[in-house]
Amino acid sequence: MKTLKQHIYIIAGLLLLGACKPEIHTPKPVAGSADFSRYISVGNSLTAGYADGGLYLAGQQVSYPSIIGKQMQAVGGGTFTQPLFSTAQANGSGYLSLTGFNADGTPITTAVTSNLGIRGQVTVPGFGNVILYTKYSGDINNYGVPGIKLLHITYAPYGNLNGYFERLLPGNPPTNSTTYLDFVTAKPFTFFSNWLGNNDALSYATSGGAGDVLTDKNTFAYLYNVLITTLTSKGQKGVVATIPDVTSIPFFNTITVSAILAGVQKANPAVQALYIKALVSGSTYTPRAATANDLIVLTFPTSKIGQPVATPFGNLPYGLTPYTPIDNQYVLDEKEIALTEDYVTSYNNTIKTIAAAKGLAIFDAYTFLRNIKQNGLVVDGVSVNSNYISGGLFSLDGVHLTPRGYAIVADEFIKAINDKYNSSIPRVNISDYNGVKFP
Amino acid sequence: MRKVLLLMLIVSPLMAFSQGFQVNLEGQKQIGMGHTGVGTLQDGASVFFNPGAVAMLPENYIQGGISPLFFKSDFNPAGTSTQNRTSNKIATPFEFYAVWGPKSSFWKLGLGVYTPFGGLTDWGNTWQGKYVLESLNLKAIYFQPTLSIKLADFLSIGGGFVYNHGSVDLTRAIPLANSSGEPGQAELKGSGKGYGWNAGIYIKTESGITVGITHRSRVNTTISSGNAIFKVPTSIQSSFPQPNTFTSTIPLPATNSIGFGFYPCSKWILALDVNLVNWDAYKTLSFDYKTNTAALQDTHSARNYQQAVSLRGGAQYKATDKLALRFGGGYASTAVADGYVTPEAPDANRVYGTMGLGYTLAKHLDIDISFEYEHLMQRTQTNIESQLSGTFKTDVYIPGISLAYHW
Questions:
Q1: What part of A 60-99 touches B (C-beta under 8 Å)?
Q2: Subunit contact A439:B80, Cβ cutoff 8 A
Q3: ipTM of the predicted structure?
Q4: What is the spatial distance between Cα B64 and Cα A164, in angstroms, rounded to a whole number?
Q5: How far is the alpha carbon of A28 from chain B, nearest alpha carbon, in Å?
Q6: Fewer CB near the last or first residue (10 Å), C or N of chain A?
Q7: Angle, alpha carbons B97-A4-B45 (nearest 5°)
Q8: Using CA atoms, how far apart are residues A352 and A239, in angstroms rounded to an integer?
Q9: Cβ–Cβ < 8 Å for A302, A260
C-alpha cells in the first residue's frame, strides 16, 4: 500500500504538469522607421466612421482610424481620441436601422431619430440650411469630416457650411474661418493617414450626375500636392488611400434596370423598356431606353414607376415612355459612369504619384474593393462581398462600410504601413467586428 | 474490483486526438511502452493491439483503464502576438477488455470496448476563428467481440467484429449579428454508427523474436439524423428552418501495423511497432441538411487528409517480481496536408515520450499507470477554405491508470 501512496503522489504531480500551457513565441512588435506617437487621420465620412446614412457613436467607435490607432499602441502609438458623440446623444445625426424584410425579401429600414446630437440649424445665405451638431471641444486624432471634398481643404468659410466640421470648431457660423488643412495641422503629429478625395467623385455619382460636379483634375492634383506637402512638412510619415471605384458599391448595384423592368412586366407584359434621361455630352441630356450599363441609385423609390405624369401628350406612365423618363438624379447612366471613372483614374494617378514621391505608404482601395466586388473575400471563415446587406461589408446606406468592412480596411492600411516602414503593427482581428445588424 | 471497472465505464468517454483525430490510448502497459503492442503479448489489450495474439495469452483477463487527457492547443493569429488557447477540458479515453478461454485450449474469446478516435476542443466563442469552429466533441466507442485461434505453438490468428457508436457535437459562430451585436451560432449534434473488423497474426520465431501483423478496417460512421440547431436573428430565422436535421458520414480510417518483440534477457522486453494509417480516406467533411434554403446550403468542406505513419518503440524492465518499469516513445507524421489544418484538429508531426509502472497488487491483480507527453511541432498555416492564418502549437499530457484481474 505504501507504494500505491507513492503512485498517488506521482499522479498528482503529473496532473500538475497538465496545467502547462503551450506558448507561441512571437517577436516584439516594432515601429520600424516610423514614429506612431501621435497619429492623426485625415479624411471624410469613411474616416469619421459614418455608417448607415449617419454619424453616430457606435459607428465612430469602430472607425478604421480608431482600429488602426488601437493597434498602433503596441508599437509606441499614443492614445487615439475621436470627437465622439456623448452617450446621451449617441445617435448623433440619426441613422438607418434594419427593422425587417418585406414578403419579397426586400429590406425595410427605419430612421433612428431619438437621442440625437443636433443643436439646431442655420440658414447660410446663398448656400442653404446647415444642421448644427453638439460641439466637441476635446483633443482630436480622428479628423474625419463627413461630406468633405479635397476641394474644400483650403476654403476658409467651409467651417460654416458643413455641420460635421462646424461641430469641431470653436466658433458659430458664420464666424468660422479656419480651413480644414490648418485645423488638422494645428497640433504637432508624427504620423498620418489620408483618405480624402472620394467625395470629389462620389458626390457627383450618388446624385446621379445631377446634383454635384466632379472636381477638376488639375485642381485635384494641385490640392493633393498642397495637402501632402503640408502633412509631411516636418518629415512626418504616413499612409494614403486611393479612391474606390464608385460603381463597386451596392448603392449602384442593388436596384437594377432589369429587376425594375421584370417587376413592371409582371403586371404589364407589353412594356419593353425603362426610359432614362441620359447624358449625350457636356450638359446635354436626351431620353433613351435604359440598358444594363446604366446604374440606378439605391434610394430610387421604385413605386414611382408607372405613375401617371402630365405631359403635352396627356398622362403617361413614369419611366415607361421617352416623354416621362426617370429623373436624372436617380440614374448614373453609362456616359456619366465613364466620366466618373475617367476622373477617378486621374485622381488615383495623382494620389499614387505624389505619395510615391514623398515615400508614403499607399493602400490601393480602388483595386482592393474592385477585387472584392469581382471575387469576394474570405477572412477568418467569414465570406464577405459587395452585395447590399448580405455581403456584410457595406452598411445600410450602400456607400459606407459596416464595422466588419472598416476592420478589413483598417487591416489593409496596417499591411501597407508595415510593408512600407518595416513596422509590425499587429494585424486586426476581423472576426471581432460585425456586418449589418439584423432585428 | 468490479466496482472500479463499473465506475470506469460510467465515466463518459470524451477524447482528444492524436494524429488527425486518432487516439492511441488502448492499454496502460502498452502506453507505458510507447504504444507498442502489435508484436508483444502483455494482457487483454491484445484484443485491440493484435487479436491474433489473444489465443497465446496464458491466462484469462478482465481489465479496464482510463487516460484523462489534457489537450492544450495555442493559436497565434498571423501578424499578432495574440494567443488563443483551448479551454481546460479533460477528455477521458478509456479501455475495457475481457478475455476468456478454457485453460490450455487452442482458442480464446475476447471483448474489447475502447475509444480509438475522438476529439475534444473548445476554443470558446470569442477567439479569432470562432466562425470556423467554437467547439468540437467527437467520440467513437468501438465494441469488438473477438475470436483467436492458436494454429500451432508458434502461430496464432484472430479477428474481431467492430461496432462503432459515434457521436459529434460541433458549434461555430454564424456571422449574422442580432440587434445587440451578438453573432448567431450553429450547433450540429447527433450520434450514429458504423461497422468494421479487426484481424491479426502473431508469430513466435525460432530466434525468439515475436512478430505481429494486424489490420483494422476503415469504419464509416454515419450520423443520419443529427440535430441542426441554428440561433440567428429573428428576422432571418426562416432562412435557417427549425427543426432541421443533418446527415454526415465520417470515415474512421483503416490502420495496418507490424510489430516486433525482442527479449534480450528475462527481465527485458523491447518492442517496436510501425503503423500505416489510411487517413487518405478522409476527403471531405460534409453536412447534408434535410431542409435547405438559399442561405442554408449543404456544406462540403475539403479535408484531403493523407496517409500517415507512426513509429513506436518501448521497453519494459522487470525490476522485481512485482514491479515492472516501462518507457517508450515515438514519432507520428501528420495526416493533414498544408492548407488544410483546421482548429478541429490542429494536427502536425509529433513526437511523444511515455513512461509507465506496473505493480502486482495481489496474486491475480495488476495495477498499471502510465504517463505520456506529446509535443506537436509548431505549424504556421493559412487554411485554404477559411483563410484563417496563424500558428498552432499543441502539447498533450496524458496520465493513465488501469486494473487488470487475471486468472
A1: 74, 98
A2: no
A3: 0.91
A4: 73
A5: 8
A6: N
A7: 15
A8: 11
A9: yes
